[in-house]
DNA sequence: TGCGAAGTTGACCGGAGCGGTCAACAATTG
DNA sequence: CAATTGTTGACCGCTCCGGTCAACTTCGCA
């Protein structure tokens, strides 16, 4: 019952962009260096974030990636679900038809409660919230928001 | 971000015991048949439940398994954690030392919030709650509490 | 026009864990 | 003793994760 590194690394990358990105493009190389993530693997993680419309990219010299919206408009749920799929403890919480007798399943109510609780936390937190906490917590060590 | 079948099957098995177990011992064979779980696999799942003190067992003819406490005293959290390990979205939510810079990590606060939300649901629900929901939902089809 | 810098994509790979099985064994009843 | 039932260790196929490599495309700049 754990998120994989995809969600964690991806969130780190977007938080990096929110803190260091400014208005322009940031090369993945820079993010990879600051976050100590393999460049190749980070490139892998960018694809779903771009597909989800959270990030834009430009190739070529001077290229890189950037957030498509302000950090205040990016909810963690979007980031996590882009990289990890729907947030839920079991499949049937999202899709009743995945279990042939879900209509009678009492545990499903519990799973649904749990899903709602999980989603609520991620939905109510934005990238900007993390940026502010970061600035409050680690003024001196801006690079140290390991996840 | 899903529970494996271990937690789901295990919960089904304990719910089965709560509904059909009565006072005596129930052979695993019976549970496996009602729940349509492979007997061998169910045996596998029993070991951690016994180790966690939720279930007792007796070998030999007339043997089987039984709950050690009343269903009202068994919280789903115990069942799930016995089979799936600590309920948390990331390791560092339980163990700060697993990440060398967890003291500065702002995401960790989010993970902790999330862990608390997840645990709260499982902690506040008992096997008896499921039994009552089951009796209300499917009087006619007592066997159909698939998860 | 060409070079280099950067993102994109497909293929691949080792390892871990899941879901499941089998066989051998231990304990209990009758 | 035989039958029944739980216990344990070994094993297996599969999927996914984490990660790498190479080839390709696209862009800026000289």
Mean pLDDT of chain A: 91
> CATH homologous superfamily of chain A - what is it?
Winged helix-like DNA-binding domain superfamily/Winged helix DNA-binding domain
In order across it, which strands form the biggest sheet of chain A? Answer: 1-2
CATH fold descriptor of chain A: Arc Repressor Mutant, subunit A
Rg of chain A, Å, rounded: 17 Å
Number of domains of chain A: 1
Can you count the beta strands of chain A? 2
Helix fraction of chain A?
A: 40-55%
Please characterize this protein's 3D structure.
The structure is a homodimer of 147-residue chains. The first copy, chain A, has 147 residues and is mainly alpha-helical. Chain A has one domain: Winged helix-like DNA-binding domain superfamily/Winged helix DNA-binding domain (Arc Repressor Mutant, subunit A, Orthogonal Bundle). Chain A is built from six helices and two strands; from the N terminus they run αααββααα. Chain A has a two-stranded antiparallel sheet. In chain A, strand 1 and strand 2 form a beta hairpin. The longest helix of chain A has 17 residues, at 107-123. The radius of gyration of chain A is 17 Å and the shape is elongated. The two termini of chain A are 17 Å apart. The model of chain A is unreliable at 142-147 (pLDDT under 50). At the A-B interface, helix 1, helix 5 and helix 6 of A face helix 1, helix 5 and helix 6 of B. The first copy, chain A, binds a DNA duplex (30 and 30 nucleotides) through residues 4-6, 27-29, 38, 40-41, 43-44, 46-47, 57-65.
């Amino acid at each position: 019952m754990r998120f994989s590194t995809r969600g964690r690394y991806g969130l780190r990358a977007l938080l990096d962009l929110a803190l260091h990105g400014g208005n322009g493009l940031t090369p993945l190389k820079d993010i990879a260096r600051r976050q100590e993530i393999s460049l190749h693997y980070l490139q892998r993680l960018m694809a779903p974030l771009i597909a989800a419309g959270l990030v834009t990219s430009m190739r070529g010299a001077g290229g890189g990636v950037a957030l498509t919206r302000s950090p205040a408009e990016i909810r963690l749920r979007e980031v996590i679900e882009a990289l990890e799929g729907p947030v839920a403890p079991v499949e049937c919480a999202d899709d009743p038809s995945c279990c042939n007798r879900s209509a009678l399943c009492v545990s499903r109510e519990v799973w649904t409660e749990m899903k709602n609780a999980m989603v609520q936390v991620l939905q109510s937190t934005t990238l900007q919230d993390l940026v502010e906490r970061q600035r409050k917590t680690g003024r001196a060590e801006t690079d140290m928001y390991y996840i």
